[in-house]
Write a structure and sequence with these properties.
235 residues, 22% strand, alpha/beta, four-stranded mixed β-sheet
Length: 235
């Protein structure tokens, strides 16, 4: 039986193990969000079947699972090797046949440009990894990050905010029309360890504009147990 104490221990264990994956110096607004989310985890009510939102949902299998975090800065070389070893032919059978789309692929939570297809994006559209935008234009993210995914209301959203290290950023200017869908693929490639990935998808588009999005999660290693808390913000 999962007790309140075990829930707290599981959450704190991952907060303690997590490394700061953000490249360079983390912007102040992100550090504040992380710190606030970490505090919220200890203040929010624990998950209980007595709560209406969790009446029919059990998290025991999740809390009993031993997870490994995606590689951090000290393992950059191993991460790059793991990503580059995966080639287009390795993922073709996971793609939707004959789908003509702008495609962004992340492997173990990291952007894989050689597997992505973004060359023909129209002007006025930014589609990139969250990590990349944090390096090049963090002020753009500051305007929208946490705008709709509020970490003070849900313990898993708080965990995602505290541990987020990558994801997808999509920004569409007004008067811009996309001529094809956007396909976002998360690939888990690893060993016998289960992966705990905490990506954040942030989509910003003009009011009333329709965008076709296809999100796919795939484990490319047999029997790899994947747990991914994917938080998306649409503004």
């Amino acid at each position: 039986m999962i007790t309140a104490e075990l829930q707290r221990q599981w959450l704190q264990q991952h907060l303690n193990q997590a490394q700061n994956f953000v490249p360079g110096e983390s912007p102040a607004w992100l550090m504040r969000a992380r710190e606030q989310a970490s505090r919220a985890i200890n203040e929010l009510p624990l998950l209980d079947r007595k709560l209406e939102a969790w009446r029919y949902t059990s998290i025991e299998s999740l809390l009993n699972q031993q997870f490994k975090h995606p590689p951090g800065p000290a393992e950059t070389h191993d991460l790059q090797t793991s990503v580059s070893d995966l080639q287009q032919q390795d993922i073709n059978h996971h793609l939707i046949a004959d789908l003509d789309a702008y495609r962004l692929v992340l492997v173990n939570g990291r952007y894989a440009p050689h597997l992505s297809s973004l060359q023909e994006l129209p002007a006025g559209v930014t589609l990139d990894s969250l990590r990349s935008v944090l390096s090049t234009n963090p002020d753009m993210l500051a305007t929208w990050f946490g705008h709709t995914a509020v970490h003070t209301e849900n313990v898993f959203t708080a965990l995602n905010t505290a541990l987020v290290n990558d994801g997808v950023f999509l920004h569409i200017d007004s008067m811009v029309e996309l001529d094809r869908p956007i396909e976002i693929i998360y690939l888990a490639k690893g060993d016998e360890h289960s992966l705990l990935m905490q990506p954040r998808n942030l989509f910003v588009k003009p009011f009333r504009q329709c965008v076709d999005l296809v999100l796919v999660t795939v484990a490319v290693v047999p029997d790899l147990h994947l747990r991914k808390r994917l938080v998306g913000e649409a503004v």
